[in-house]
Amino acid sequence: MTFRLGVDVGGTFTDILLINEDTGESFRGKTSSTPEDQSIGVLRGIEQVCRTAEIGTDQVRAVLHGTTVATNAILEKKGARVGLVTTRGFRQILQIARSFVPGGLAGWIIWPKPEPLAALEDTVEVTERIGSDGQIVLELDEDDVRTQLTKLRDQGIEALSISFINAYANDQHEQRVAEIAAEVLGDIPVSRSSAVLPELREYERTLTTVANAYVQGQVSRYVGNLERQLHGSGLDADLSILRSDGGLVSSAIAADSPVSLLLSGPAGGVTGAAWVAEQAGFENIMTFDMGGTSTDVALVEGLKPRVGRETNVGDLTVRATSLDVRTVGAGGGSIAHVPELTQALRVGPQSAGAAPGPASYGKGGTEPTVTDADVVLGYLPPQLAGGEISLDVDAAHAAVKSIADATGLPSVHAAAEGIYDIVNENIFGALKLVSTQQGFDPRDFALMAFGGAGPLHANALGILTGAWPVIIPPSPGVLAAYGDATTSMRDEAVQTLIRRFGELTDTELSEMLHGLADTARASLLEAGLSEGDLTVTYAVDLRYHGQGFEIPVTVEAADLDAGALDALRTAFDAEHERLFNFLLTNEHELVTARATVSGPRPEMAPTVLEEGGEDPSAAARRTHQVWVEGKEVEATIYDRHKLLAGNVVTGPAVVAEMDSTTLVLPGHAATVHPSGSLLIRPIDAPADSGSKD
């Protein structure tokens, strides 16, 4: 009997999901994160869940891990000191950047330009030049390279990035500089743009390569340390890391290309949400994963999460394939405050995190947080994480009272309700970014809420968005770990080839994509997967000739035999019109092609609950006072583990479980689906309302 583990490390909690590969039975674990060394919390959680399952750690075959190490290094500005080698004449490439300023007109006045991850004094240029066709225009001056690398060594750089103009078309010079760097600089991380992002646009390629070098040391050390500790604790298991696009890679590949991990944590939740939606019979969903520090939102259409070609972390935007996840600083630990200048209540983005945490955690925190407001309102019971965390109700009241005093609100309950409403509006704004801003009506989607804090705010977000039903998956607090444990190995290969459709044939496109697929499948075959288990998907970045941006379009494998260009024209025009509401008559142009190869998704036995009729009284624990819409009302607390298929929980109600708590507001009801999900709808809405296709 063997098991696999999904591990998700958040800012406040580390979530563990253990799955029996023979029966599909799962066991959950949740423990506090350890920001000083994430591996400590990971190992503690693994030992905890193995004890719960009554198995030895030696029975775990695979550890599948979503990590925020790379993300945190970027956000906290704690990466390596990076040296950059560029083509002569392009030393200020990161400083010039793109002429884009976020925000409206005021952005031009107050926007502070982010500091590049490689400082200008740590950027050197060397003599070399390659044309866009891959031909060598000017040979590499190796003496010049040695001189410049020696300068960087003397300045104390900790990692090196190499990005030459047009290296995507010919990587000969970059490879040679990397060889010389090994001689001059010794054993430091080296990132080549032709390996990290073999695509045109020198600024985006350079920025992405520098970001890779910036976090490579931390990720490599973390992965290596975790592997050693796993093996030291008796786990003879393979460690795989979740990429930003929702696929898994080996720990070695993850350490070499950490820029592909920047959204590793959020990707696990979206992947898991798609699986749960399928079990509940819904294909189109919006997701929001509300943890202790932030909330991540995404959109899933036809059970496929939307994928983007850019990854955004803080003020950094790199070119790396990732699920289209947007993040807002709104979590259970987000701190409420009243700025002296405006005297208006604000929530986040600052967070109490895991240490000291919300005041109600009793770990020394005193500032009022969203969790403290939930405690004051009665939405959270006094025990969390299956009893591992006991909440201090009096401390929560004392913390939130500071907001009531600062704003002049009449009561602590009114202040807590204000905090609750504001954080919901913040999440609503993020959901608009993945729905209405991209041409999707949220009312055409169901809304799935997960994370430790998500189900507490889900019903309110359903009212704001009009997205019904609101779906609360089984084990919502560990759904990201669920996604980690049920996803597949993945790799991709990319090639830039700028061709107008009139200069390209179906045969040439097919040969290029098949060649990329062969390159991408090599790493999976080396990892032990068999050829018959692999699936390939194709995509190309297209534009109208003359445009300065591209739109990714999927290529169906069946179209590669004939008619691929015609199918791409039609698909591109449809997507362009949806995004911008107009079409052009310009000729279509291919810019970049990619092939993605995936291994099989691990089998997971679906949950099937016993039928129990509409009456949920057998699961009722007790009654409890909650504060809703300016008044106190009596709610029933239910034990989710005792709810059966068909049970209907009418609000106001609180549904409690080990890893999360669900609030059902007055005028709404939660129906228990046979798959275990709670489906919340307005009482006057039909039972089959919501988008299923």
Automatic annotation (TrEMBL):
Domain Hydantoinase A/oxoprolinase: 205-490
Domain of life: Bacteria
Residue ranges of every copy of the Acetophenone carboxylase-like C-terminal domain listed in the record: 508-671
Stored InterPro entries: ACX-like_C, ATPase_NBD, Hydant_A_N, Hydantoinase_A, Oxoprolinase-like
Protein name: Hydantoinase/oxoprolinase family protein
SUPFAM superfamilies given in the database record: Actin-like ATPase domain (SSF53067)
Lineage: Bacteria, Bacillati, Actinomycetota, Actinomycetes, Micrococcales
Signal peptide: none
Residues annotated as domain Hydantoinase/oxoprolinase N-terminal: 4-184
Pfam name, any one: Hydant_A_C
